[in-house]
Amino acid sequence: MYNQFVKNLNNYLALNASDNIAPNRRYQIGESLKPLADIEKFKQLKDDKPQQYHQLCALIWALDSDERFAIISWELWGRGFDKADCTVDSELLADQLKLVDLLLGTQYWA
Fold first, then answer.
1. 55 to each of 8, 32, 59, how far by Cα in Å?
2. Residue 39: closest CA among 95, 77, 88, 91
3. DSSP assignment of 59-97
4. What is the pTM of this model?
5. Alpha carbon distances (Å) from 74 to 2, 67, 84, 88
6. CA 90 to chain centre
7. Distance separating alpha carbons of residues 105 and 8, to the nearest angstrom
8. For residue range 52-85, what is the model confidence (pLDDT) as tens digits?
């Protein structure tokens, strides 16, 4: 499931990339999930961008708390991704959860 998530995320980003200078909201939300595709980039966020790191840890916590996402949360944990119950941007978290749900239930082709 994790491999399909990564593939769908990359295709989703390719489909939603804009030629405009300012990326659209859909792309920004997808881009915020990009570190979940690479454990080394995720770990690097801890030192470089702690706010983004905590946002993703909270997302993984939320995934683990929802039965629909049991498999993907288990796979993320097994690959070394951290989870934590952090205070984060709740609107972004809700949008990230919706996108993860979409990416797990739909196949994107680029």
1. 21, 9, 6
2. 77
3. HHHHHHHSGGGHHHHHHHHHTT---------HHHHHHHH
4. 0.87
5. 10, 11, 14, 22
6. 14
7. 10
8. 999 999 999 999 999 999 999 999 999 999 998 8
